[in-house]
Design brief:
Elements (H helix, E strand, L loop, with lengths): L1 E5 L2 E5 L1 H16 L4 E7 L7 E6 L5 E4 L10 H12 L4 E2 L9 E4 L13
Parallel strand pairs: 3-6, 3-7
Antiparallel strand pairs: 1-2, 1-5, 2-7, 3-4
Helix pairs in contact: 1-2
Protein name: ATP-dependent DNA ligase
Keywords: Ligase
Pfam family, one: DUF7882
Length: about 120
């Protein structure tokens, strides 16, 4: 599990998914584009859906807990990129196209608890 930190929000995603999200998000930010990102929450966070408006003016970081960079699936990356460019914004999905699960991060690898600052 890796952590995406945006402003005061900390979300855990599986490292391979986070690698793909990092590429898509940074591509949008390099073009100075703001966009909506939505994801499915874990049961510990209410098992619902959440969304946040991402803008390049707010610090973002990506922390990976695995020691090796995950491989990149160009088709998955393209699908996430098209989603980010759409009017619905980036809907976080897995390689299979299903909604991907995000867990609010407690600061410890592998945990899933709400963490807002």
């Amino acid at each position: 599990m890796g952590t995406l930190t945006y402003a005061s929000l900390h979300l855990e995603f599986e490292d391979r998914l986070l690698q793909h999200l990092q590429i898509v998000i940074i591509q949008k930010f390099r073009r100075h584009e703001a966009f909506l990102m939505s994801w499915k929450e874990s049961a510990s966070a209410g098992d619902g859906r959440a969304a946040i408006w991402l803008t390049p003016n707010v610090p973002i970081s990506f922390k990976f807990y695995g020691s090796k960079a995950p491989s990149v699936n160009r088709d998955w990356l393209s699908s996430l990129g098209r989603s980010a460019d759409s009017s619905t914004g980036l809907i976080v999905t897995g390689e299979d196209g299903e909604l991907a699960l995000a867990s609010p991060d407690s600061g410890q690898p592998g945990t899933a608890h709400q963490r807002w600052h």
